[in-house]
Amino acid sequence: MLQIKSFTFNPFAENTFVVYDESKEALIIDPGCYEKQEKGELFDFISKNGLTPVKLLNTHCHIDHVLGNAFIKSTYDIPLWYHQEEEAILKAVSSYAPNYGFAQYQESKADHYIREGEYIKFGNSQLLSLWVPGHSPGHLVFYHQESATCIGGDALFKGSIGRTDLPGGHHETLIKAIREKLFALPDEVVVYPGHGPKTTIGEEKETNPFVGKTASS
Questions:
Q1: Which residues form the domain of 146?
Q2: According to the model, what pLDDT value does residue 213 have?
Q3: Are strands 156-157 and 160-161 parallel, antiparallel or unpaired?
Q4: Residues linked to residue 8 through DSSP beta bridges, in sequence order
Q5: Given 16, 70, 102, 105, which residue has the most CB atoms within 10 angstroms?
Q6: Is residue 214 part of a domain?
Q7: Is residue 213 part of a domain?
Q8: Is the confidence at residue 57, as pLDDT, over 90?
Q9: Is residue 169 included in any domain, yes or no?
Q10: Is residue 80, in this structure, part of any structural domain at all?
């Protein structure tokens, strides 16, 4: 049975996820932990629950989602996976991190580029990668069909969508990707976004002012 534990880290209030099953193998997704206490909170949860992290995933590589990449890689000696289109986005973080107060930011590099439609396996489970660009060029969503859940990054939020005014962002692309990729999922699918509370595909189809039934485009 899939389990999802969320943490909210850093000044951007970013959601970090640990996803695991009965095998105790785990994925760490979008580690936003930067301060010592944040890293400790994540480490303690993994340790107390006897989990074995096997992969580190980034839905996308904006600063708030990658602050803990180097810490996770070095602590657990696990590979970092993300979409190839995020390579330049990640490389740019080191140049602007000090401007946001993250002077101790450490760089990280991909060990594997995730392809759309690729299954990411761990324990007795697997997540399907969906390419949902627009917030960033290589943005991915990780979908678990059996539990009707997905880790949505910054594509779709409860009552909102990801911003598209950052480098590599494109509003029309995001709208199209949400409608074609995410809204193709069953209405009961629970979306765990990169910021804010969880929602469902059905709720956002009905009420989201940007992409729902009442949206202008």
A1: 3-207
A2: 86
A3: antiparallel
A4: 15
A5: 16
A6: no
A7: no
A8: yes
A9: yes
A10: yes
